[in-house]
Each structure stands twice: as C-alpha cells, then as structure tokens.
Specification:
Layout (H helix, E strand, L loop, with lengths): L1 E6 L2 E2 L2 E2 L2 E7 L9 H8 L5 H9 L3 E3 L2 E2 L12 E6 L3 H5 L9 E4 L3 E6 L16 H8 L20 E7 L2 H12 L4 E9 L7 E5 L2 E3 L7 E3 L11 E9 L3 E8 L6 H8 L23 E9 L6 E5 L4 H10 L10
Parallel strand pairs: 10-17
Antiparallel strand pairs: 1-4, 2-3, 4-7, 5-6, 5-7, 8-9, 9-10, 11-16, 11-17, 12-15, 13-14, 15-16, 17-18
C-alpha cells in the first residue's frame, strides 16, 4: 500500500485535495468483502467513510467502480481508492460560533446549549453543529473522540451539556455517566392534569418505533431492540391543562424523557413527534436541561451547575401560570 499520486480537483467552489492510493490484496484477505479489506488496508479511516467512497464511485476494482461493499476480492488484485472529501468528512471542520460557557478549565467545558443547535453532524446537518463550534473553540478538540462530546441533547432541547477537553477527562466523564454518577435533571412542561403520585419512577425499555423510524417507543422487555431506560419524574406544579415536572435521568436513551412522558400520558408541549401540541407560543418540545451535578473528571471536587430555562420556556410558564423555585429541584 502506497501513496501514488496527489491531485486537487474542483469541488463546488472549493479546491480540495484528493489522495489516490493503490492497495494490493494480500493472501490473508483472499475472499474478503471489499469494505472489510479496505478497513484493514486503510485503517486511519472509518469503515462507514470507505463505504461512502464506494457509493460515490471512488473505489475501483478490475477496471471499474466497485459500488458493492459486499463484493469479494482475490489475492493479488489491486484496489484504487480516491480518498476524497464526502459530506461526512467535510463535517468535521472548525466553525467559530458563540458558545455560552458556564464553566471552563483545562479539562472540562460546561455550556448552555440553545434550542435549535444540533450537537453532532448527521444527515441533513453536516455543518453549524456544536461539534463544529468545539473544533474552533480549542485546538485539542480535533484529537478527541467527537471533539469531547460525551452526551447529547436533542436539537430542540436547551440547557447544560458536559464536554471533555482532554482525553483523560473524556474517558472519566464517559465512565461517570455510565456508572450513573452524573446527576442530570431536566424541566419539562407537559399536557394534561397530573395523574398518580407526585413522584414516579419510570422503568420502561426504549427501542425504535416499528411503525415510524423517526420515533422511539416504550417496547416489551423481551424486545431485541429495546434498551433499559429509567427516569424519575416529579411534579413541581400543575393545572387542569398542563403540568410542570422535574425529570432525573438514570440512563441516556434517545428521546428518553419525551418517550417516557408520552407513555405516562403527558406528552411534552410542542413535541409533535410524540403527541404534543404547539400551544401557548411554544413550537419546540418544552424540555430544558437545568441541572448537572458531578465530580470534576480529573480533580475530583464536587461541581453543581444550575441554569434557568430560556426566554421561550419562561414565557410558556407565564402563559400557563405554572411556577417552581430552584429549591424544588433537590
């Protein structure tokens, strides 16, 4: 395997480098799938990136583009690979943006994420994400997994997020979250008069909704796709039309609070994906990550961050006549 050539073709309005590699299939890879072999031959790139290159016609075998990742290769055959930027590859670029920093030192960054900001690049959002902003915020982010992002908030959820700034901190934060040593509390405003006890422990597995791939759902415990999910929900204030609750996450499944609240019969105001309605001027899901408590990932001291909800959530509280004070969050 060697670098044979460098060229710089036009890509839109930019000029981007393309590296062409020629790789010869060794005996031990005879009969392998082409994508598996490429992942071994070019280990510095992910398998998904290489599969994308194949889909784009950037991998050649036997004198023709090799589009099928499952195609088998033979010893001695030569693969030509154009290592050119894809949307995914170009997503991981620094983009300066205004970050509301709540706390920062050499190892830890705590930000107040606004509603509307996507955390990580994905289909439809390849730029302008928090990850892009972190890459511009400090140089070490480029060498960290996901630029130091250790947990996520949905695009339209506001509030506190933890970001590691060193590899030691990232690894410690991931362990602490997995061990449930990070206390994460959210404010949520939901439809309907609160039913049942003032505090409820929801222990219901969550998996992909079989009827709608954009949604998650509470699934049967024996479901192959379900993962354990636990949320403690506590009533803070309520009326006949709505209820304000504090939600404590014990696990971190996709859309967990939104799914569990809908399962309880209280979809979040504005959360149309899970049965909520955009009322009282709130067009997004009424969910705000308001508190984080943890031990500093490298120094060990106790940290406690509390941030009030943004203006649209505050206006929603005023419209519904619901109230709370910080002492209720515990």
């Amino acid at each position: 395997m060697s670098v044979e050539d460098l060229e710089t073709p036009a890509f839109g309005d930019e000029v981007l480098e393309v590296e062409i590699r020629l790789c010869e299939v060794p005996a031990e890879m005879h009969g392998w799938r082409i994508d598996r072999a490429l992942a071994r031959l070019i280990p510095e790139f992910s398998r998904s990136y290489l599969q994308q290159l194949m889909a784009d016609g950037a991998v050649w075998l036997r004198g023709a583009p090799a589009h099928k990742a499952a195609a088998r290769i033979a010893v001695g055959e030569r693969l030509q690979v154009e290592l050119r930027p894809t949307q995914q590859a170009m997503a991981f670029v620094p983009q300066p943006m205004a970050l509301e920093v709540v706390f920062e030192d050499a190892d830890l960054l705590v930000i107040n994420k606004p509603a509307g900001l996507v955390v990580h690049p994905a289909a439809g959002h390849w730029s302008g994400t928090l990850l892009n902003g972190l890459l511009a915020h400090h140089a070490a982010a480029a060498s960290l997994p996901r630029a130091g992002i250790v947990h996520r908030l949905d695009k339209d959820t506001s509030g506190l997020m933890l970001v590691g700034k060193s590899r030691q901190a990232v690894e410690a934060l991931v362990r602490a979250i997995a061990a449930r040593e990070v206390n994460r509390q959210y404010l949520a405003l939901a439809h309907g008069r609160w039913q049942g006890p003032a505090e409820q422990a929801v222990d219901q597995p969550i998996g992909r909704d079989v009827h709608n791939r954009l949604r998650m759902a509470v699934v049967r415990p024996e479901s192959a796709t379900g993962k354990p999910a636990q949320t403690t929900v506590r009533l803070l204030d309520g009326t006949e039309q709505a209820c304000l609750v504090a939600c404590k996450l014990h696990t971190g499944r996709t859309h967990q609070i939104r799914v569990h609240m809908a399962w309880l019969g209280h979809p979040l105001v504005g959360d149309t994906l899970y049965g909520g309605k955009p009322l009282w001027g709130m067009a997004r899901q009424a969910l705000h990550a308001t508190r984080l408590r943890l031990l500093h990932p490298t120094r060990g001291q106790s940290l406690d961050f509390l941030i009030p909800p943004p203006a649209d959530f505050q206006q929603l509280l005023a419209e519904t006549g619901l109230h709370y004070n910080e002492s209720q969050l515990g």
